[in-house]
Amino acid sequence: MLRRNAGRSARHTGLRLGFMCLVAVIAFTASSAHSGAKKAPAFIDAVDPSGVLRTVAVDGSGLDLQGPFFQSLGTNGRSCGTCHVASTGWSLSPSEVRERFKKTNGLDPLFRVVDGANSPHSNVSTLAARRNAYSMLLSRGVIRVGIPIPPNAEFELAAVDDPYHYASASELSLFRRPLPSTNLRFLTTVMWDGRESYGPLGTTAIASDATPEQNADALLSDLTHQARDATLGHAQGTSISDSLAEALARFEINLATAQQNDRFAGNLDSHGALGGPDNLADEPFYVTINDVLGADMMGRPFESSSMTLFDKWQKSHNPHQAAIARGAAIFSAMRIKITGVAGLNDDLGQTTIIGSCTSCHDAPNVGNHSVGLPIDIGVTDESRRTPDMPLYTLRNLSTGDIRRTTDPGRALLTGKWKDIGKFKGPILRGLAARAPYFHDGSAETLDDVVDFYDTRFNIGLTEQEKDDLVAFLSAL
């Protein structure tokens, strides 16, 4: 148990607070490190709790850190980079949020009531009021998303318990983590609930029966649409040109981010390992690749051992490298009895599916699902509700059945009862930098993520296996 016991205290105290509060972009190419230099850096590095995170441009062109992604395009001072911070995996870290709050007395552009506050009616007139108003953003790094119960839904809102006294059927308050704006060329669904996925033929997801070229065009179109919506919504803009929205999307698609260095195991592309963003930039991908249900458009069978980055470390004499390799093997080979997962068990008509972590995280060396697959693993269940989260009681209009959830997920798009609680699985690369985890930030650490799955599916992992899995996930 190299990390789980000895590493817990370090990760949860000094390393986490010190690194994540003070984390900054620390490394550029020599030519761009000087003041006033205009050449785009070839890479940017940032310290995170596990070592060093690195971002590169997929096409090798360098990273334009002065472009529109980092410019205010709306009316409230926000840019895309306000909520998608390179040093925290192009997402948000609560400790980094708290540091910004402290430095600006809660006046940084991040802190806007439109979606940063617990309610758009929050009082932000004083420092104490702002600290209270932005408590969810400060504690979980979540943004409030307001979505109504859709017309003709199969369910109604029977009751709401909102600690912030705002949510109603016309606008549920949903607290969600900003997804990373990097590694997007691997996406098969845009946004947690897929609300920005339209597909090449106007469908609700990137199509498994389209050509790779069609899917690439569809992804660019979806991300362009998302950039426009984000500018109008999060940045409270009035308009954005098609060319500017597309420039934002192309910048994101061209980013590759992964852990470059592990503070225990060293460089993650050494001694034959294939970690780091340079290898990720070269990783082949197409929608349906290695699909667990056999939909691979190239006709290739599903391969459960799809995380091969650290195969060369299986016999390493470095105990930390060996732990990472063992974790990768567990991720692929550990048999799991998958039960009660809406979107899998019910759709396939199988009460129990014998699978592995890669059954849902099947994209090779990336870790998201290679087709759109929203599923409900129970994260939004009433049993996991904490007092800071709203709780919604939904009633099925046909059967009268009741479901209590902190976030109906995809059901707020489709109106379907069976879609309550469904979300996509995110890309797993660069995990160490972007805690907390799950769509609602309910898992503070990767240790907590592993514990959740171990309990949820009664896997029976040993402490050593848990430690190895955390070592592997931290190295992605």
Explain this structure to me?
This protein is an alpha+beta fold. The protein has one domain. Helices cover 28% and strands 13% of the residues. The protein is built from 15 helices and 12 strands. The chain has helices at 6-12, 14-22, 30-33, 80-83, 94-104, 127-133, 135-140, 212-233, 242-253, 277-281, 319-333, 345-348, 411-414, 446-456, 463-474; strands spanning 25-27, 43-48, 51-57, 143-147, 155-161, 172-176, 255-262, 266-267, 336-339, 352-355, 391-396, 402-405. The protein has a 5-stranded antiparallel β-sheet. The protein has a 3-stranded antiparallel β-sheet with strand order 5-11-12, with no helix packed on it. It has a two-stranded antiparallel ribbon with strand order 4-6. Helix 1 (6-12) packs parallel to helix 2 (14-22) and helix 11 crosses helix 15 (463-474). It is globular. The chain starts with 5 loop residues before the first helix and ends with a helix. Residues 4-35 and 201-205 have low confidence and may be disordered.
Fill in the keyword field for this structure.
single chain; 476 residues; alpha+beta; 5-stranded antiparallel β-sheet; 15 helices; 12 strands; globular
